[in-house]
Amino acid sequence: MTDILPREARHGVRRDKLVGTSVPRKEDLALLTGTARYIDDIKLPGMLYAKILRSTTAHARLLGVDTSAALGMPGVHAALCGADLLGKVKPWGDLMQDLLVGDHFPFAVDKILYEGQEVAAVVADTKYEALDALEEIRVSTEDLPVLVDPEAAIRPDAPLIQEGINYEFGEGNIFDRYRVRVGDIEAAEAGADVVVRQRFTSNRQAGAALDPHGCVASYDSFTGVLTLYSSTQSIFMVRDVLADTLQIPRNRVRVIIPEVGAGFGSKAQMFAHEVIASVLSMQLGRPVHLVLSRAEIFRAGTARNGQVRHAELMLTRDGVITGYRDYVVHNCGAMSLWGNQVVHIGTNVGILPYPIPNIHVDADIVHTNTAPGGPLRGFGIPQTLWAKEQLVDMAAEQLGLDPLVVRARNVVNPETFPYRTPMGQVIDSTSVYDCLHKAAEAIEWERLRADRPAHEGVGLAVSMKYTSCRHPSFDTDLSAVRLRLETDGTVTIFSSDVSHGQSHATFLAQIVGDILGVGFDKVNLAQPDSVTSPFGLGTFASRAAAVLGTACRQAAERLREKVVTIAAHVLEANPEDLEASNDRIHIKGLPDTGLYLENLAAYAAYRTHQLPPGFEPTLEAVATYDTPTEREAPDGTGNLSVTYSTAAHAAHVRVDPDTGRVTVVDYAMAHDTGVVINPLVVEGQHQGGFLMGIGMALGEDYVYDDEGHLLTASFKDYQAPYATELPELTKLYEIPAPSVTIPGGHKGAGESGTGPVPAAIGNAVYHATGVRFTELPITPDRMLLALREKERRGMGSFRYPDDMPEFSGPRTAEEWPEPTGADEGDLLL
Amino acid sequence: MKPFTFLAPRGLDEAVAMLGEHGPDARVIAGGQSLLLAMKERLARPSALVSVAGVAGLRDWTYSESGQLDIGAATTYAELAEAALRGWHAEIAAVAGNLADRPVRTMGTLGGALCQADPRFDMPALAVGVGAEVDTVSADGVRTRSADELFRPEGGTVLGPGEILTRVRYPAADAYRAVAFEKFRYRQFDAALVSVVCAVRPDGSLRLAVGAVRPRPVLVSATDPAGIADEVLPAAEATTRLRAYQRELIAVLARRAIDRVNDDARS
């Protein structure tokens, strides 16, 4: 996939389209030669270094923090703790609509809620002096009982984690609930020929972006402007929350990003360290550098929410899915900005690609004394798929049907588009049926289902994923682009949506190049900067191609209209007879005629008498695109995404019967990403997404001991896959079903590669061994012990861990707990 | 990392003198692949580092007259992996070439691994398994110990603060008909979860050791896989998932090692 720039494009000669070609990425030169500048590379004159002291206990009363000895250490300029900021900065967490409560504060004040929570900070001339001084801070605590298990957190006698917060449902560790009520689940259950039920749990996973979380805050006491350089996915979310926290006007906070070495959702909020660095810089009038270590990021960054799902799937004997019921216990850690949203969107969208007529979901969203939960590649969808896509296989087995046939019978495949599912999604186009069969065919599904080698098996999983999102937390789904035709005929793109691996500089230039006729190399993306960039939400939810791309398309069309107006005036031509290409506005079909964009820009800037009468002399155009999506209804329904991408995955695994190691022998993925702007970039997203999916399936987890200490807080212990553990992924297929809602037909690619992976592997492992994993990850130790126990008991099929002797959870649905909430008396239903 | 004095002696006498001069907070550093990580995390805070990387005569390998393989302690894994070793000694090169990752193998040393005495490392288990000897030097002179004597039961080594490991001597090529080292690790570059060394003596009897399970590598008397597992990690002690898994792996890896040496010895 290393197509070089087509020769014509390289030579600036007109060719038909840049969109759709694998133009080499503009980003690569700086990244591959090491000249890209990340947050830790920023050095400002007079800059000081801050470090944070973090709690080593997971749950305790904080009796006192004494920073006096630290202040006397060499090189130290200041120290801060919670008591210093009480009443001076505002807690955050509730700024945006429906985000719950202001439970976030720069430091623990009277209580420690998780290991790694901020307790104090020191700023010194060097980072080593800051670390030395941290060792001199005295912290007095009184330990409290620790809650690691989310199911324990909802017991009535469980110790209270967040105290003094009156949630919507009263005081307790349940800080939010979620539900879906579609159709009549009782009727579906009564009418079903088969109901499969299983409790599934899923693991917590780190973003593990190699570029650490961090910032440099620089307060200018003369202008009163606080500039924050930060490794973040959203400059305006950080700006707005930071300004609110500090209670200063938003036009006095400027957020700029350097190169961001990935986020995956883990940098989609403002963090305590950004407030701490800002306060220290404002106090001292000097720039303050504060970059977190890997251990800090593991403990206090956000991690994928773990879930316990009590899931049921109802079907007719023909394999038609008629109902889905689930009770979810959703672990958000000790505090969480986005965590509760994850179960909303992850469930709503995770139900796809099946238009199930009866859906009944309850979720208890709980606190534990663990790392904050939050968004991570897939936003809850991988967790839903892990349960639902395995239930499909379990049902197929009971019905004596091929899992491929059951899926094919159920995937959304309407006669006409747009089609609205019972859950409320508006499917404007899809090739999911074809994707499913393509993936199965590529893995040799028929052959391997009929005759599999010993210890080998195949499995399928299929999803449709959002490509933008109107979050329940805020009623918006917009991105904006401002374009400026510069006076030499180059074009600058201004956008606040941070590119942290999405290749904005490349794909936006492809869109602009096609519309404005400007050469690819003449288009440059400006660094996102809240002072100069138009307001936008940021980069998450796989929204760049569809939403940002549409804003860019519209801005480019507006800019083209302006230059065409000038050209028509100067050339005394009819605007309808002109077109843009070859760096010019020219008569249609005569690309060597007309006026260069450089000349047209110069008229608007320096020769304004050449302009049409009344023409406002500007060559800027801005466009904001807000998607026609819906808010989530009280019954959980709604069309939250502007369009939906498809991912059909097929896995072929081998399980070593001696060691339990699961090797992915072969893997195929067929995707509908709509009109692909840059195939090279999209393949990169799929490859990277697959890596994260394999990590979730086979290794990665936040392992805590009973005292809430994270045992996997380094890359040595955290089992993220190495390249050596991955199969070479060559079976990638695109079956484009262009979106009709998005003008360019694009759909998001960023998360398609991840979601179905754990379920596809789980299904393949079952086919290979007869062991149904209901817990993630599928590590060699779990696999081998399951095989041995299955053999010992002579069972044909076996559930891990449900059928292990030491398993203490409910083994059958009769033992499942009831959701804590009730519909009775609920005015919204 | 905390400030420290870096010392680069050119001879062993000088190195020993420096260790004496800087007291118990001074540490010997070879490749630094364990020590530097610990220092970076402030888990180790030596006042001085005495580097043996530049000490003459510690970075080579030779065959002694009696046929023993004599390897300088500062020889890197990468150098060992490239060494043209004969007979069962080739297994030492194979082990050195199949641990950690390439940067670690380029810097990390045989002696460093033995002194670090991490039970999950391969070289301590291999040294105990084949009955290697180690030489050390200190202000008290030169001393030779068996590898088995080097490791404390509770972990770590018996070496004193002023003692420097200089050479590792492996029994002659004719001491064993074959040696097999087998291990399991989660990921390619991880340390072992269990390792097993099996050596066949000329009379056909087996010498077996198990690493990564106890705080130090252990020699076992049993020669059947199930018996080895019982001896190193009895079922009653395998109560956690990790321990239960290690117990299974001991038997699996012992079987693989025994089968392999028997194949090698026959061929």
Describe the protein's architecture and organization.
The complex is a heterodimer of chains A (829) and B (267). Chain A has 829 residues and is of the alpha+beta class. Chain A has 21 helices and 32 strands. In chain A, strand 22, helix 16 and strand 23 form a beta-alpha-beta unit. In chain A, helix 11 packs parallel to helix 12, helix 12 runs parallel beside helix 20 and helix 16 runs parallel beside helix 17. Chain A is globular, with a radius of gyration of 28 Å. The two termini of chain A are 52 Å apart. The N terminus of chain A is likely disordered. Chain B is α+β, with helices and mostly antiparallel strands. In chain B, strands 4-5-8-6-7 form a 5-stranded antiparallel β-sheet. In chain B, strands 9-10-11-12 form a 4-stranded antiparallel β-sheet, sandwiched between helices. In chain B, strands 1-3-2 form a 3-stranded parallel β-sheet, with helices on one face. The longest helix of chain B has 26 residues. The mean pLDDT of chain B is 96. Chains A and B meet through helix 5 and helix 21 of A and helix 10 of B.
Short summary:
Chain A has 21 helices and 32 strands. By secondary structure, chain A is an alpha+beta fold.
The largest chain-to-chain contact, stated as pair and per-chain residue counts, equals: A-B, 20 and 18 residues
Structural class of chain A: alpha+beta
Distance between the termini of chain A: 52 Å
What's the story with the biggest beta sheet of chain B?
5 strands, antiparallel
Q: Which word captures the global form of chain A? A: globular
Lateral arrangement of strands in the main beta sheet of chain A? 3-5-1-12-9-10-11
The secondary-structure element order of chain B is: EHEHEEEHHHHHEEHEEEEEHH
Number of strands of chain A: 32
Structural class of chain B: alpha+beta
Mean pLDDT of chain A: 95
**Unreliable stretches of chain B:** none
Biggest sheet record of chain A:
7 strands, mixed
Radius of gyration of chain A: 28 Å
DSSP summary: helix tally of chain B: 10
Task: Assign an overall shape of chain B.
Answer: globular
